[in-house]
């Protein structure tokens, strides 16, 4: 058995990430499958202008409220819009909002987390207090409040979501920094005269990155769900842009009349995308931080 | 017919990346009324062997193959309900650490009552309590203490409670897994005496699992020496101690300091037990064996009869 | 640290948190582009009318005075006035709150029940298909937008199967009124309890029927974390010696799992309940909208469509204070039950 291992090692080096992931058990599969789902949806959204049979916002391309058929595989809605085209392109707003909110969170949450927890003392206490207050609050309600004040739009939605999620980044970075700060090799660096900035960027940051990636992925999932929620509640975007969230809202009203396809397909798309990100995120956090040692 | 018969038992632990054979093709049999000692270092698989007789091996451990018959019952293949009825009633099990084996929030009496009433549903609480007090009395524990919690007892007393629980329903077979390891030497001697006495008066069949060769020497009829999941040597106690055959047995016996021999230098076995996730080829003991030769590095020795005992070593294999 | 000093320290921590929250909401409604009053009106409005409007709501005063009024008002239970009809928001809040409370309680029960039972099952069949399916379910259920699940439930149970109603809390005019003894009137606003107080079984059953779908929806979406928590704790506990020893005595599996192992795992589940409360409220907002459940969440969404910013402010503040109070209570209870953990 020990004779096979050298070859095994070479194979693993050839396809490092994929095989490595699959060997890591359930968590690895979760990341793999989640990643594939996300990639597929993302690609679908990006190429939607080329693959959509109809213009997603063009009305009356077909009969109003017709069920799925060979001409309109996913049916049409109350405005005669083709649901298939709308499903292809409806994710783009969500992706934009989610991406923007993650970027803002990274740009704001990571530096604050790093500096405040590294500095310790008063700064850390104040920052923690602020972050904990936001974190304790029901996320959607806060996002609703902010979005209501800011008004519609991709940027505003992204900002609302970002404010709600910055504390998550802060907390995880803080817990990591506090642990790493005490490790011997960091102390050693200090004793050799390293400046705070160097320690922070060269020693602490690289170790914190895996956790940040895991949080960011889950953040993506939450952002998509919150964006859908905000749209559902009426705080979304101008009606003309194709968006799964809007289809869900309108689809809801059409449900009693039996037109289930208007809400079902966009709904499933949202679920699929959120699921993809969640699987990735959960898998990643399990890989980086195995909870159960067996 | 032997009370316990094990044939080619294999128990594996499946973890991510490795399958560890904790028990590898172990075969032995135990006649009624006899005492079998199972000795070996930590991690040699003796505890797993003990647990597997009652199908108590915790996941990710699994009985992969082999046969086990306990007084006629096929332990490996019988139903959950059947094996549950065997546990406690026909086989008593004593665990190593009585502090962690007793439910800390349950009174001693409640342990007994629960067990008695599970196996004999007709028994009323009063009667169950009476029986519990009788058992405890037999073991030297005052009956008034029946309502105490485990942490209120000393180590030796707790172990007596454990023994009481194991014997309360009158089983034929008693398996003791390191019963004295967590106790000090004086208490250990008392417990061993107690076990010997109980064995006599109750005509028990006993399996004594331990790394302490000394107690095996004075209590067991036969001894099985385990190494890395396999049996290295199996034979009558007197014979094994007088003329150990397997190099591991010899080294084990040599490593016990003898107070009567003057000027003795402490000897130990060089090296460490093998990593069962990536075991060496051939005989598992060969990296540490002073007599290892070519065949030992390539071929696994089989457990073969030799001079009335069984030994798994190429030194005795004339084929 | 003694219990008393812990409680005091914890309260000392909660006060600044609430203050921060209140201030944040206050600023949010005012400092952002445009002022709340003019944003309320879609079209151009006569400046004198606007001024009168502001005066009625206290929005014409300088910002510092507004802040003080706001804080003082809250101490008196005044959550502001609605922009729509100048009625006190607190009235609306307190009349809509019981509905949300009932939904929250029922959802919590379902969430814990489903989560714990599935978690235990998952831990018992470690690494099996059942285990993996349950784990995936736990993760997937969170990924489903609660309003989508709600619609699916409505579609299946209300529209196709006609088993359960969808929408509102009870048939019009049949709301239970509680118990009236002598001069005292007892009513909780929770229809299930009130109908018991009234002694009316049919109302009780009816209120349960209306409560079932929304609670099931909200409970399912949030149970995932309980599945994970229970499973993890159980896996650890089931490994412990006294569990194996109990099995070795021939005790029934059910006794071992629930009587021995689960007892240990329970405390963390209780704390998680407290932590999930915020998520529960957030989910309630969407659930109430989906099921037309007349609670605080639906009130909030309502006010949004009317651009009633002062009401929105009041509701958001109420939510914040509520969550802060609940997490304070949970922390204190937990500390009482487990003196080892203080911070």
3D architecture notes:
Chain A is mainly α. Chain A has helices at 5-14, 16-23, 26-46, 48-51, 83-89, 91-119, 121-136, 139-150, 154-181, 184-191, 196-232, 244-254, 261-288. Chain A is 74% helix and 0% strand. Chain A is elongated. Chain B has 319 residues and is α/β, with parallel strands linked by helices. Chain B has a domain at 4-90 and 171-226: Rossmann fold, CATH 3.40.50. In chain B, the strands form two sheets. Chain B has an eight-stranded mixed sheet with strand order 6-7-8-3-9-10-12-11, sandwiched between helices. A four-stranded antiparallel sheet of chain B has the order 2-1-4-5, with helices on one face. The two termini of chain B are 31 Å apart. The mean pLDDT of chain B is 86. Chain C is built from 14 helices and two strands. In chain C, helix 9 (201-222) crosses helix 12 and helix 12 (253-291) packs antiparallel against helix 14. The N and C termini of chain C lie close together (10 Å). Chains B and C meet through helix 2 and helix 4 of B and helix 11 and helix 12 of C.
Rounded average pLDDT of chain A: 80
The CA-CA distance between the termini of chain A, in Å, is 23 Å
CATH hierarchy, class of chain A? Mainly Alpha
User: Count of helices of chain A?
Assistant: 13
Percent of residues in β-strands of chain A: under 5%
Task: Please identify the structural class of chain C as seen in this structure.
Answer: mainly alpha
Shape of chain C: globular
Largest interface: A-C, 46 and 51 residues
Distance between the termini of chain C: 10 Å
* Largest beta-sheet characterization of chain C: 2 strands, antiparallel
As an assembly, this protein is heterotrimer
Strand tally of chain C, please?
2
SSE class of chain A: mainly alpha
Average pLDDT of chain C: 82
Order of helices and strands of chain C: HHHHHHHEEHHHHHHH
Strand content of chain C: under 5%
Total number of strands of chain A? 0
Overall outline of chain A: elongated
Give helix and strand order of chain A, one letter per element, not per position.
HHHHHHHHHHHHH
Q: Share of helix among residues of chain A?
A: over 70%
Radius of gyration of chain A: 23 Å
Name its key features.
A: mainly alpha; MetI-like fold; 13 helices; elongated; B: 319 residues; alpha/beta; Rossmann fold; 4-stranded antiparallel sheet; 12 strands
């Amino acid at each position: 058995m020990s004779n096979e291992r050298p070859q095994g090692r070479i194979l693993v080096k050839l396809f490092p990430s994929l095989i490595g992931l699959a060997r890591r058990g359930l968590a690895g599969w979760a990341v793999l499958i989640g990643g594939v789902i996300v990639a597929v949806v993302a690609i679908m959204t990006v190429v939607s202008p080329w693959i959509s049979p109809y213009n997603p916002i063009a009305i009356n391309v077909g009969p109003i409220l017709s069920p799925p058929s060979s001409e309109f595989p996913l049916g049409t809605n109350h405005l005669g819009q083709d649901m298939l085209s709308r499903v292809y392109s409806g994710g783009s707003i969500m992706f934009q909002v989610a991406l923007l909110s993650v970027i803002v969170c990274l740009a704001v949450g990571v530096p604050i987390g790093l500096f405040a927890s590294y500095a310790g003392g008063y700064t850390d206490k104040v920052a923690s207090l602020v972050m904990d207050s936001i974190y304790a609050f029901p996320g959607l309600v806060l996002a609703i409040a902010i979005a209501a004040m800011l008004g519609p739009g991709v940027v505003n939605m992204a900002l609302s979501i970002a404010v709600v999620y910055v504390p998550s980044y802060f907390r995880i970075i803080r817990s990591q920094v506090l642990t790493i700060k005490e490790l011997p090799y960091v102390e050693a660096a200090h004793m050799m005269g390293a400046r705070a900035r160097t320690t922070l960027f060269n020693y602490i940051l690289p170790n914190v990155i895996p956790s940040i990636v895991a949080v960011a992925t889950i953040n993506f999932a939450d952002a998509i769900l919150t964006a859908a929620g905000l749209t559902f509640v009426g705080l979304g975007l101008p009606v003309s842009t194709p968006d799964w969230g809007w289809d869900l809202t309108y689809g809801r009203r059409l449900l009693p009349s039996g037109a289930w396809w208007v809400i079902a397909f966009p709904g499933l798309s949202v679920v699929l995308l959120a699921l993809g990100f969640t699987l990735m995120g959960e898998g990643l956090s399990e890989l980086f931080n195995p909870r159960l040692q067996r | 017919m032997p009370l316990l018969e094990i044939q080619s038992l294999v128990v594996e632990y499946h973890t991510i990346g490795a399958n560890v054979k904790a028990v590898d093709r172990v075969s032995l049999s135990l006649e009624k009324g006899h005492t079998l000692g199972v000795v070996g270092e930590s991690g040699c698989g003796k505890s797993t062997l003990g647990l597997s007789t009652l199908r108590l091996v915790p996941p990710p451990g699994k009985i992969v193959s082999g046969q086990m018959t306990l007084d006629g019952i096929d332990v490996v293949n019988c139903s959950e309900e059947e094996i549950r009825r065997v546990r406690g009633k026909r086989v008593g099990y004593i665990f190593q650490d009585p502090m962690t084996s007793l439910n800390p929030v349950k009174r001693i009496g409640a342990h007994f009552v629960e067990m008695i009433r599970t196996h004999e549903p007709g028994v009323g609480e009063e009667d169950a309590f009476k029986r519990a007090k009788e058992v405890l009395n037999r073991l030297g524990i005052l009956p008034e203490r029946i309502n105490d919690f485990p942490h209120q007892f000393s180590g030796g007393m707790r172990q007596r409670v454990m023994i009481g629980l194991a014997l309360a329903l009158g089983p034929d077979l008693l398996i003791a897994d390191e019963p004295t390891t967590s106790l000090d030497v004086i208490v250990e001697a008392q417990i061993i005496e107690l076990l010997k006495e109980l064995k006599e008066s109750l005509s028990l069949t006993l399996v004594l699992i331990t790394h302490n060769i000394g107690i095996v020497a004075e209590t067991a009829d036969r001894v099985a020496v385990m190494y890395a999941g396999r049996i290295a040597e199996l034979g009558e106690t007197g014979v094994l101690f007088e003329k150990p055959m397997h190099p591991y047995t010899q080294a084990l016996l040599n490593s016990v300091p003898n107070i009567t021999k003057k000027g003795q230098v402490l000897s130990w076995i060089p090296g460490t037990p093998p990593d069962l996730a990536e075991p060496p080829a051939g005989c598992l003991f060969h990296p540490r064996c002073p007599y290892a030769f070519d065949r030992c590095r390539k071929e696994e020795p089989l457990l073969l009869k030799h001079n009335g005992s069984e030994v798994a070593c190429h030194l005795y294999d004339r084929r | 640290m003694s219990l008393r000093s812990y409680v005091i320290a914890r309260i000392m921590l909660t006060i600044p948190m609430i203050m921060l929250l209140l201030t944040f909401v206050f600023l949010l409604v005012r400092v952002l582009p445009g002022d709340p009053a003019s944003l309320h009106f879609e079209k151009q409005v006569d400046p004198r009318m606007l001024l009168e409007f502001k005066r009625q709501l206290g929005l014409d005063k300088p910002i510092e005075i507004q802040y003080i009024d706001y804080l003082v008002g809250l101490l008196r239970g005044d959550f502001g006035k609605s922009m729509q009809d100048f009625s006190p928001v607190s009235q609306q809040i307190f009349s809509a709150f019981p509905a949300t409370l009932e939904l929250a309680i029922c959802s919590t029960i379902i969430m814990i029940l489903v989560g714990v039972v599935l978690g235990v099952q998952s831990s018992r069949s470690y690494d099996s298909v059942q285990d993996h399916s349950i784990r995936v379910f736990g993760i997937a259920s969170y990924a489903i937008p609660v309003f989508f699940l709600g619609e699916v439930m409505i579609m299946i149970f209300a529209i196709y199967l006609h088993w359960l109603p969808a929408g509102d809390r009870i048939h019009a005019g049949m709301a239970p009124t509680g118990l009236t003894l002598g001069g005292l009137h007892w009513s909780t606003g929770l229809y299930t309890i009130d109908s018991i107080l009234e002694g009316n079984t049919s109302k009780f059953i009816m209120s349960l029927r209306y409560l079932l779908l929304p609670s099931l929806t909200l409970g399912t979406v949030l149970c995932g974390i309980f599945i994970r928590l229970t499973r993890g704790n159980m896996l650890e506990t089931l490994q412990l010696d006294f569990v194996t020893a109990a099995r070795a005595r021939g005790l029934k599996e059910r006794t071992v799992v629930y009587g021995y192992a689960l007892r240990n795992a329970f405390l963390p589940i209780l704390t998680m309940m407290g932590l999930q409360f915020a998520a529960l409220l957030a989910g309630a907002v969407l659930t109430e909208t989906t099921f037309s459940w007349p609670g605080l969440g639906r009130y909030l969404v309502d006010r949004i469509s009317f651009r009633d910013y002062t009401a929105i402010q009041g509701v958001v503040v109420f939510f914040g204070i509520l969550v802060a109070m609940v997490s304070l209570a949970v922390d204190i209870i937990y500390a009482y039950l487990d003196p080892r953990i203080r911070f």
